[in-house]
């Protein structure tokens, strides 16, 4: 294997690479001792809020935090910050300047690399590049819309860093005019009102009544297929959604990315772990690519956040560190940005990094009545009972739904998303009783009808207005909650 760790390489004397004074070890140490750093991170594991509350988690949190700070120190030493490190799209791929076009690709196992007919040279650190100057008439030699083929050891490839494609083919995208955004990215966190997300294809973005966030289905890295939608049209659609008050997030599917990158240079270990079809999150250039992907969508398309799918951190501390870096980056670029993780059996997913967590805003969980944690995003694929759905509404931060459910949306709107109300949860005779604001949710997860007695006065039953209850005295009622059903009492 001919892999070179680019972080280590850049700290040596690599041709055409110089470390500025701010990248020196002295600067690195001063950064990690200054007040700004201390406000953002806590290196003493015993001072982490999560460890204080749950000391049994100390070992796992200590191990991942030690690795996180090791990688963070290396990034600051070489690139000065995570934000600078995540600007790989300004260094790799097709960079247009007033004098010409620079193409750069990381291919440490390549013996030869060409872009169309232009041969690339290497710095022996894994990077290949070629500069294509303007012609005598001051025009770029590659025209807007032209096909771009990377020949890597005689394999035909599309650049990993290509931002515009036509099907499987990378194309050079350099129009005379580009769409300028009119609206701003999300200025206010949506959690206070609950995150209500609907998935939509990138070609069908539109606001839907009852939702406040649109999730774009997975794109492969930074690549937008103009057969589906042009960059300008996507920006225009996102702009319209922002103007209407919607947030726009994007799904990042790491399994799909791994399959796409596998064998790019003819080997199975450039971006993936050798003999394992899984991204190698411990490699410098893998981290650069994945973090740059996040930064690109935020800066280029004003994406408001991300859902991370198909990434398993249970036995991969490098993957855990990547997610911490990703959350650090998202909330650095977008203080009100949204980060969502799939349901994982892993501690402190939704605690901040300074508290000892991974820094996610939401955890996507299957509907289950014992899930009482805050910042929990529930998923409804249409196969859940009414009891589970009402449970998600009462306790969770919201639902992801594939299709619109008018009846349920009406209930959500009537409940007003239970703003700033804490859920009081009790279980009596197998009926879950959740008090939140002026509403009481009665949820029966069993397969039998349940009779329950409540010490309260009822104005109405919101979701089953035809249901009658027995008034035992002035402040006590008795009613039946059917199997796998739920009631919302006001």
Strands, helices and their partners?
Elements: H1 6-11, H2 25-31, H3 35-40, H4 49-53, H5 58-79, H6 82-85, E1 93-96, E2 100-106, E3 113-115, E4 118-119, E5 121-122, E6 127-133, E7 147-148, E8 150-152, E9 155-157, E10 164-166, E11 169-171, E12 197-200, E13 213-216, E14 224-225, H7 231-243, E15 247-253, H8 254-261, H9 284-301, E16 305-309, H10 317-333, E17 338-341, E18 362-366, E19 376-380, H11 386-395, E20 398-401, H12 406-415, E21 424-428, E22 431-436, E23 439-444, E24 450-454, E25 470-473, E26 476-481, E27 486-489
Parallel strand pairs: 10-14, 12-13, 12-20, 13-15, 15-16, 16-17, 17-18, 18-19, 19-20
Antiparallel strand pairs: 1-2, 2-6, 3-4, 3-8, 5-6, 7-11, 8-9, 10-11, 21-22, 22-23, 23-27, 24-26, 25-26
What does this structure look like?
This protein has 490 residues and is α/β, with parallel strands linked by helices. The chain folds into four domains: 80 residues, no CATH class; 73 residues, Immunoglobulins (Immunoglobulin-like, Sandwich), CATH 2.60.40; 228 residues, Glycosidases (TIM Barrel); 66 residues, Immunoglobulin-like. The chain has twelve helices and 27 strands. It has an eight-stranded parallel beta barrel with strand order 12-13-15-16-17-18-19-20, surrounded by four helices. Strands 1-2-6-5 form a four-stranded antiparallel sheet, with no helix packed on it. It has a four-stranded antiparallel sheet with strand order 4-3-8-9, with no helix packed on it. The longest helix is centred in the N-terminal third of the chain and has 22 residues. The chain is elongated and about 95 Å long. The N terminus is likely disordered.
């Amino acid at each position: 294997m001919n892999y070179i760790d680019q972080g280590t390489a850049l700290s040596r004397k690599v041709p055409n690479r110089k470390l500025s004074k701010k990248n020196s070890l002295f600067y690195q140490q001063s950064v990690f001792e200054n007040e700004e750093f201390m406000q953002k991170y806590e290196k003493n594991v015993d001072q982490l809020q999560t460890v204080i509350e749950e000391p049994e988690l100390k070992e796992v949190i200590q191990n991942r935090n030690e690795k996180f700070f090791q990688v963070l120190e290396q990034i600051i030493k070489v690139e000065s910050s995570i934000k600078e490190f995540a600007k790989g799209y300004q260094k790799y791929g097709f960079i247009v300047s007033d004098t010409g076009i620079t193409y750069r690709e990381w291919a440490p196992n390549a013996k030869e690399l060409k872009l169309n007919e232009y041969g690339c040279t290497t710095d022996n650190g894994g990077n290949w590049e070629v500069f294509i100057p303007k012609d005598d008439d001051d025009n770029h030699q590659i025209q807007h819309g032209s096909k771009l083929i990377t020949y890597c050891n005689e394999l035909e490839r599309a650049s990993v860093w290509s931002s515009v494609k036509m099907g499987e083919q990378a194309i050079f995208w350099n129009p005379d005019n580009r769409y300028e955004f009119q609206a701003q990215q999300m200025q206010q966190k949506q959690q206070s009102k609950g995150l209500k997300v609907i998935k939509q294809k990138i070609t069908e973005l539109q606001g839907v009544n009852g939702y406040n966030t649109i999730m774009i289905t997975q794109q492969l890295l930074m690549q937008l297929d103009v057969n589906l939608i042009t960059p300008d049209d996507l920006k225009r659609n996102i702009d319209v959604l922002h103007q209407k008050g919607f947030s726009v997030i994007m799904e990042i599917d790491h399994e799909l990315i791994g399959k796409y990158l596998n064998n790019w240079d003819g080997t199975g270990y450039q971006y993936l772990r050798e003999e394992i079809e899984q991204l190698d999150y411990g490699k410098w250039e893998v981290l650069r690519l994945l973090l740059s992907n996040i930064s690109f969508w935020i800066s280029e398309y004003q994406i408001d956040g991300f859902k991370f799918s198909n990434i398993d951190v249970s036995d991969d501390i490098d993957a855990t560190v990547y997610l911490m870096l990703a959350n650090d980056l998202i909330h650095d670029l977008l203080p009100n940005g949204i980060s969502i993780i799939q349901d994982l059996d892993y501690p402190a997913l939704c605690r901040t990094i300074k508290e000892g967590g991974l820094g996610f805003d939401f955890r996507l969980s299957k509907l289950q009545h014992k899930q009482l944690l805050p910042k929990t995003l529930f998923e409804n694929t249409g196969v859940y009972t009414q009891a589970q759905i009402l449970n998600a509404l009462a306790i969770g931060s919201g639902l992801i739904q594939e299709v619109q459910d008018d009846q349920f949306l009406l209930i959500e709107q009537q409940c007003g998303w239970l703003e700033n109300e804490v859920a009081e949860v009790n279980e009596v005779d197998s009926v879950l009783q959740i008090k939140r604001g002026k509403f009481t949710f009665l949820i029966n997860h069993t397969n039998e009808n349940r009779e329950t007695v409540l010490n309260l006065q009822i104005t109405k039953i919101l979701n089953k207005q035809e249901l009658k209850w027995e008034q035992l005295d002035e402040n006590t009622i008795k009613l039946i909650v059917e199997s796998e059903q739920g009631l919302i009492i006001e």
